[in-house]
Design a protein that fits this description.
Number of strands: 25
Strand order of the largest sheet: 10-9-11-12-13-14
Largest sheet: 6 strands, mixed
Structural class: alpha/beta
Strand content: 15-25%
Radius of gyration: 24 Å
Distance between the termini: 64 Å
Shape: globular
Number of helices: 15
């Protein structure tokens, strides 16, 4: 058992058990003890966009629906050891179907709704799905993917307007078309902490996406960590309402947001996506006390005109990562709550997670906190040597104690070599470049694969991008290395301009961007090439496809729309 949680009145709340066997077992326990507490809220505007009914579903009614859905799958022969795809976005059917399948020991594979034919083909074939539940408009897409890859997958539609009807009508009609489960038969035994709970795919910034196998313990440990973190992100049992625009195909929303609320009898308020114009309206309507964010959100929100209603909300804290250093302090001052920067990966789960939830948080310094005693880490150079404090290096992590992989992913599906490489030397190699600062606080620098090495100097792509993005003539920008015969790498900026440009306009904007970089950064970090492109290579989750960008950057110098700015990169005169 764990320390007690504070409730809404500051009194002791039920401890967080350590013995739940599965995600469903934890949900069933909470739903049985607190049936009238709200579990899931779908706001009217979110429901309208999805074409479903708005609802606030309590734990008791949710449990009824989950049990009925589970019974339908069990009757069709699905069980322990099978995998089921869920192409359901952030809708009620995602949560209820996930919990129902988990009760049977069926692992779920959340499928990003943005995926198209080639991506679906890969996922269906690689994951080994035998059944999938999809939005009606995407059923044919999944069936076509199964046909193209020769996979036997039963694909059925889910109708969200029926998933919360209550006793006697909780399961969607679409599940009536479930075909019997193909072989092999389900494994014997009840699902437990070691049973596979989910298969989450990484965003695939280089090569094919990797499937991270995650067991029940991964999700339960993530939720328990959040509840026990305390400090500025203390969770009050039965009192919190957490709003998130992040997709349930990501571990943040699925393992942290959902599990923290589920284990504390709190309410999850999922949005379809982030809508800047209606964000605060949604926060107020949901009575949210916690928000989860991506770094782009504060920048967009602070760009809106100030309003007397800026602090008209009940938010206690935000949990996220990547807030622009320029906006961190001003956002908190304007909107009245802290943005708590955190670090974790799909692979690390809560086996290695750090959050800046106690002062000093070093606001505006890309700080994500001081590691707790449950985490061991190293910061190393390219030769795997530990670097001194203040020096950037790759972050290596593992859980403290006799189980160094506790809380981490189990493996990359069908890729033992990649799994072994990730754990080379007994440490998980994150690929993230960080530096250790004052009192052990960690500061994010960049992804190692995004670091450009020019004449012996390491240059973080993200750092250069954050400066170039400030120019009003830039709609989007991404920075990568391009080969240079003298310096090894040169900095190349791929720019999507805010308006069409002719040759003279491109040349002028390129010079302005280099000037801006020279004002803000060391001279060697300024772009030596500025290429104007129609679009950046992006993943389905709208992240820059760094592998494709690097390949593209090697081909751009010397082309018509790529401006050579190397002559503008001059070392400044020495100061007296």
């Amino acid at each position: 058992m764990s320390p007690l949680l504070p409730d809404g009145d500051g009194r002791a709340s039920p401890p967080v058990p350590d013995d739940d066997a599965s995600v469903f077992a934890a949900f069933e326990r909470i739903a049985t003890e607190h049936p009238r507490r709200p579990f899931l809220q779908i706001l009217p505007e979110v429901a309208h966009r999805a074409g479903i009914a708005p609802i606030e579903l309590d734990y008791g009614r949710a449990l009824v629906a989950v049990r009925e859905i589970a019974a339908r799958f069990a009757a069709a022969g699905y069980g322990h050891g099978h995998r089921a795809g869920l192409l359901l976005e952030n809708r009620p059917s995602f949560f209820l179907t996930w919990l129902a399948l988990n009760a049977l020991g069926v692992s779920v594979v959340p499928i990003n709704g943005e995926l198209r034919a080639a991506e679906l083909d890969y996922l269906v074939e690689h994951s080994g799905l035998c059944v999938a539940v999809a939005l009606p408009a995407r059923v044919d897409d999944l069936r076509a993917a199964a046909a193209r890859t020769g996979c036997t997958v039963c694909v059925v539609p889910s109708l969200d307007d029926e998933t919360h009807a209550g006793p006697g009508g909780a399961a969607p009609r679409g599940l009536a078309s479930l075909a019997p489960a193909p072989g092999p038969a389900p494994r014997a035994g009840d699902p437990g902490p070691d049973s596979e709970c989910g298969l989450l795919y990484t965003s695939g910034t280089t090569g094919r996406p990797k499937g991270c196998v995650l067991d029940n313990a991964y999700y339960l440990i993530a939720g328990r960590w959040y509840l026990r973190a305390g400090g500025l992100c203390a969770i009050r049992f039965g009192q919190e309402r957490l709003i998130t625009p992040l997709p349930m195909t990501h571990m943040n929303a699925m393992a942290y947001s959902t599990m923290a609320m589920l284990l504390s009898a709190g309410c999850v308020v999922p949005l379809d996506r982030f809508h800047p114009s209606s964000w605060w309206r949604a926060v107020r309507a949901s009575r949210a006390t916690i928000v989860h964010y991506l770094g782009v959100m504060p920048a967009m929100l602070i760009g809106a005109p100030e309003s007397p209603d800026d602090r008209d909300h009940g938010v206690r804290f935000g949990f996220g990562a990547g807030v622009d250093r320029r906006h961190h302090a001003s956002f908190e001052a304007r909107f009245g709550f802290p943005l708590l920067e955190a670090w974790a990966m799909t692979e690390t789960g809560a086996g290695a997670v750090v959050i800046a939830n106690r002062e000093p948080r070093h606001v505006g310094q890309s700080c994500f906190g001081v590691p707790g005693p449950e985490l061991e880490l190293r910061i190393v150079d390219e030769a795997d040597r530990d670097v001194p404090d203040g020096t950037p290096g790759e972050l290596l992590v593992r859980a403290a104690g006799p189980e160094p992989r506790r809380g981490f992913f189990r493996e990359y599906l069908k890729d033992a070599e990649a799994t072994a490489q990730a754990w080379a030397g007994g440490w998980f190699r994150t690929g993230d470049v960080v530096r250790r600062g004052e009192a052990g606080a960690l500061h994010f620098v960049d992804r190692r694969k995004n670091v450009i090495r020019r004449s012996g100097e390491n240059i973080a792509a993200v750092e250069v991008e954050s400066v170039l993005r400030r120019h009003p003539g830039v709609l989007e920008v991404a920075v990568a290395a391009t080969p240079d015969p003298v310096r090894g790498d040169e900095v190349l900026a791929c720019v999507v301009p805010a308006a069409p440009l002719d040759a003279a306009g491109r040349d002028a904007l390129a010079r302005e961007l280099v000037g801006l970089a020279l004002e803000q950064l060391a001279y060697f970090k300024a772009p030596g090439w500025v290429a104007f492109v129609d679009a950046l290579p992006l993943t389905p989750t709208q992240k820059v496809q760094r592998g494709e960008l690097k390949a593209l950057a090697a081909t751009l110098p010397g082309t018509e729309r790529c401006v050579d700015t190397r002559a503008l990169k001059k070392r400044p005169a020495s100061h007296p």
